[in-house]
Amino acid sequence: MPAPSFSTAAPTFRSRIGCDARSGYYAVPRRYRLHLSLSCPHCLQIAVTHSLLSLDDTLPVTLLPAVPDAPEGGHLALRPLYAASAHQHRGPTLAPVLSDSWTGTIVSTHTPDILRDLARRFGDQGPDLDPRGAEEEIADIGRLCEQDITAAAQRAGAPGTDPVARATALTTLHDALDRLESRLGDRDHLLGGDVTLADVQTWVTLVELDTVHRHHLDAAAVHRITDHPRLWAYARRLTAHPAFGRHLDLDGIARRHHARCRGEEAAGAAVQIVDWAAYARS
């Protein structure tokens, strides 16, 4: 369901690592730190990417509570970073955050930029998660996940949505799943044989669709969602990969959802699509 609104929005920090010499941010082992809450889909994407690139010794991670503990919906532990980075900050102190330990300030809170910088500035020894020439294709899949799956599922399950708008949202959602199903017809991953950032975002989107959004859909809609065998087999296969499954905090996702959501549970809540815990342990 939609996140609560705040009277003062959190500022978006968008400095880059190694992209602008004037910023002074360049790739140095252990200079930067990630602050992540694994119940947040954006943070989960970053955690998976961090593990795929084996960055534990290069870029430390601080894990935050699954349910934000500040009154305005943010994290108390991030207040000093926001205060040092934005003068008289009064808004929520949200994750994810990439911070600079040399200055005690925030480098970025923008997930796509953080993912690209992890892949291109710190990922020399890992898989090529953001291959040159595939930027637009990865961005297209990202928009599909955000707009045609997550946002459409939220609209379809929102309380008070009229039947026509709900049907339109479900059509958008199912069409998007059809497109992903088709892409997986002759390949193991969305861009071919190797995992990329497109797979990371898609996996997180599918986790959220099953563990959060289906709770507000009717059973018929969820059964239609399950009718994508290649897509859900792909999701199960990625979950069994240690870089994916080890970060899956199902209890935390459920607690965060219940703390934020005011929607009514629908019949689709009883139709589990994937036994995520079983595949995460395999």
SSE layout and pairing:
Layout lengths: L31 E5 L4 H12 L8 E3 L15 H7 L11 E4 L4 E4 L2 H11 L13 H23 L5 H21 L13 H15 L7 H8 L2 H11 L2 H4 L4 H11 L15 H6 L1
Structure write-up:
There is one protein chain. By secondary structure, the protein is mainly alpha-helical. Helices cover 46% and strands 6% of the residues. The protein is built from eleven helices and four strands. The chain has helices at residues 41-52, 79-85, 111-121, 135-157, 163-183, 197-211, 219-226, 229-239, 242-245, 250-260, 276-281, and strands spanning 32-36, 61-63, 97-100, 105-108. The protein has a four-stranded mixed β-sheet. Strand 3 (97-100) and strand 4 (105-108) form a beta hairpin. Helix 1 (41-52) runs parallel beside helix 3 (111-121). The chain is globular. Residues 1-8 have low confidence and may be disordered.
Rg over CA atoms, rounded to whole Å, is: 19 Å
Average pLDDT rating: 92
Structural class computed from helices and strand pairing = mainly alpha
Instruction: Give the overall shape, derived from the CA principal axes.
Output: globular
The count of β-strands is: 4
Helix/strand order: EHEHEEHHHHHHHHH
- The helix fraction, in percent, is 40-55%
Largest sheet: 4 strands, mixed
Unreliable stretches (pLDDT < 50, length at least 5) are: 1-8
- Give the strand order of the largest sheet, numbering strands 1, 2, ... along the chain: 2-1-3-4
Strand percentage, roughly?
A: 5-15%
- DSSP helix count? 11
Q: What is the CA-CA span between the terminal residues?
A: 31 Å
